[in-house]
Specification:
With 129 residues, the protein is mostly helical. 57% of the residues lie in helices and 0% in strands. The chain is built from five helices and no strands. The chain has helices spanning 12-30, 34-50, 57-73, 107-112, 114-128. The longest helix has 19 residues, at 12-30. The chain is elongated, with a radius of gyration of 26 Å.
């Protein structure tokens, strides 16, 4: 989760769903081909479904902690990272140009880009109205 606010309060089912997705991603990292991944995914889904009918909250919490520990011990050392996610090759690739930077241009630079600055001035006036 990103941001400066407090962490969200997650229900048990939300924690289990997030753990399931992380486990799937880890299985995908370790798999050599798609068939191996699918087989392991079905086996893991069966393990999650075994506890679906359990109603004792304390036992479910304990199983969740054990499952998270198992997940942490089996994490891949070099996981796949999607290209636009933090750590990916395209993350924050395009620089953000702030509009106030154009106000710092020297008059000679403005003269070279006269059409741009005239259009920009018209848009600023329309925006202020």
């Amino acid at each position: 989760m990103a941001g400066n606010g407090p962490n969200a309060i997650l229900t048990h089912s939300q924690k289990v769903c997030r753990l399931y997705k992380r486990c799937l991603r880890t299985l995908e990292d370790w798999a050599n081909d798609r068939a191996e991944f699918r087989f392991n995914a079905v086996v893991m889904r069966a393990r999650f479904d075994e506890t679906r009918s359990e109603t004792d909250g304390r036992l479910l919490a304990k199983q969740l902690i054990e499952a998270e520990q198992e997940y942490m011990s089996s994490k891949h050392e070099d996981p796949k990272i999607f290209k636009n996610d933090p750590g990916g090759i395209c993350f924050r690739r395009s620089a953000q140009i702030h509009d106030w930077m154009f106000d710092t241009y020297h008059p000679w630079e403005r003269a070279q880009l006269r059409d741009f600055f005239e259009t920009r001035q018209e848009l600023k006036e329309q925006y202020d109205e």
